[in-house]
Write a structure and sequence with these properties.
single chain; 207 residues; mainly beta; eight-stranded antiparallel β-sheet; two-stranded antiparallel ribbon; 1 helix; 14 strands
Length: 207
């Protein structure tokens, strides 16, 4: 029908992925984020006016220019690997166990070694009888992070807010939204090997 249009009831931050743009790309997947905020970055256009003898003769509006998005996402556990991608720095692992040993951010007075990455966010699509088996997948391209504050408080679990700037190249879309019934498999909220290759998992739709 001509008047039909798509409406997607979305709920929850199901999964966040940071896919690095390196010679050997890494995919950091985590399910511990519960909030994603976006704010569009716009260069406002200016009106060009022709004024003669204090009279407005003509006016031309210059449209606003879209530059990208600023993303803020909350993560409720500490991940040195995510911190390294977002704000740079180095990570040291135990040579025998390969467990995390030490993280150091970029030294003061030096240029941070920031890694470019795409940010992917999955949100669940639900219906009147619950889950549909489908997900909305948002991809924000060409992201870079910045400094990550560390906040600790008695009686409360640690959480971080990562601030990321997505600035697509000229001709690139500011983001993409697609409907998928496939989620990456092998993703666990805790103890996940961030450098493990992610295999696709088929999620069966409700009939």
């Amino acid at each position: 029908m001509a008047n039909e249009f798509t409406q997607l009831p979305l709920t929850d931050v199901v999964l966040v992925q940071l896919v690095t743009k390196e010679q050997s790309p890494r995919t950091l997947s985590f399910q511990t984020s519960d909030e994603i905020k976006t704010e569009e970055v716009i260069k406002e256009g200016e009106a060009k006016e022709l004024i003669i003898k204090n009279q407005l003769i003509a006016k031309k509006e210059v449209p606003d220019l879209m530059l990208g998005y600023d993303l803020t996402f909350k993560d409720n556990v500490m991940s040195p690997e995510v911190m390294q991608v977002v704000q740079g720095g180095t990570i040291e692992y135990d040579p025998e166990t390969r467990k995390f040993k030490k993280y150091e951010p970029t030294a003061i007075g030096t240029k941070p070694n920031l890694t470019a990455f795409d940010t992917i966010v999955y949100s669940e699509i639900v219906g009147d009888d619950g889950a549909t088996g489908e997900y909305a997948k948002f991809t924000f391209p060409n992201c870079k992070g910045g400094n990550v504050p560390v906040n600790l408080k008695d009686g409360e679990y640690y959480s971080n807010e990562y601030k990321v700037k997505s600035r697509p190249a000229i001709g690139q879309k500011p983001y993409t939204l697609e409907i998928v019934d496939v989620l990456p498999s092998g993703v666990r909220a805790f103890g996940y090997d961030f450098y493990e290759e992610v295999e696709p998992l088929k999620i069966e739709k409700k009939k």
